[in-house]
Amino acid sequence: MPIPFRLPRFYPILDTAALATRQCPVLLAGKALIEAGAKILQYRHKDAWTQNHFEEAAQLSKLCCDTGVLFVVNDRADFARLLRTALHVGQDDLSPVAARQVAGDEVMGFSTHNAAQVARGNEEPVEYLSLGPIFATNSKLRPDPVVGLEGLRRLRELTEKPLVAIGGIALQNAGEVLAAKADSVAVISDLYPPKCDHKSLLARAQEWLRVVSGSAP
Fold first, then answer.
1. Which of 111, 130, 139, 184 does the annotation list as catalytic?
2. Is 140 a catalytic residue?
3. Which long-range contacts (CB under 8 A, 24 or more apart) does 64-72 make?
């Protein structure tokens, strides 16, 4: 019997646009998160990929492989296949069935935003689902309707797959999200301190890990 996939409770996302706004190199952020103890790391680049982005993802992938961290490429099944990494796809990307043909047997996640999409996710060949936005967020240009904590509790009952909550999650509300039965919290904006250097990033990531480890399962 295969071992069920387990999501780390802290799911940091290296969003290239958010990091560029803070003039923070992606590799610097990735190294700080790994040093802090993160066990999963997603590379999220929503614009067109260049060779530089591919090489950046490749360096992060090697760092993660060397340290036992699961590295996830967002959206792009082709680059996940080339890098032999995990993959996360959204509602507007390749379907999980098609993406599986490209990415192979690597771990795959699937974004959901409502009951119908969660139900579909149950039937898709993916190891975990994400659900959001739980709160209002600025990380998407056209965000889906807010799910809220009550919506999270309700939709959590519709799936047995590991569920990562995303959207507007900060240190102040992460405990409530985990108490609403999310298995993991994905973090973008609140991950990056105003002074985005290695020391500050390391301290913020360590604070996040303390918060999620101290929250009720």
1. 111
2. yes
3. 64/34, 67/34, 68/39, 69/34, 69/38, 69/39, 69/40, 69/41, 70/8, 70/39, 70/40, 70/41, 70/107, 71/40, 71/41, 71/42, 71/43, 72/40, 72/41, 72/42, 72/43, 72/107, 72/109
Would you list the domain boundaries of the chain?
10-213
pLDDT band at 1 (very low <50, low <70, confident <90, very high): very low
Top CATH class of 10-213 equals: alpha beta
Q: Is 200 an active-site residue?
A: no
In angstroms, rounded to a whole number, what is the distance separating the alpha carbons of residues 122 and 101?
A: 18
**pLDDT tens-place string over residues 10-61:** 999 999 999 999 999 999 999 999 999 999 999 999 999 999 999 999 999 9
Catalytic residue among 39, 44, 76, 100: 44
Name residue, tokens 């614009």. 47
Catalytic status, residue 111: yes
Question: Given 140, 153, 154, 181, which residue is catalytic?
Answer: 140
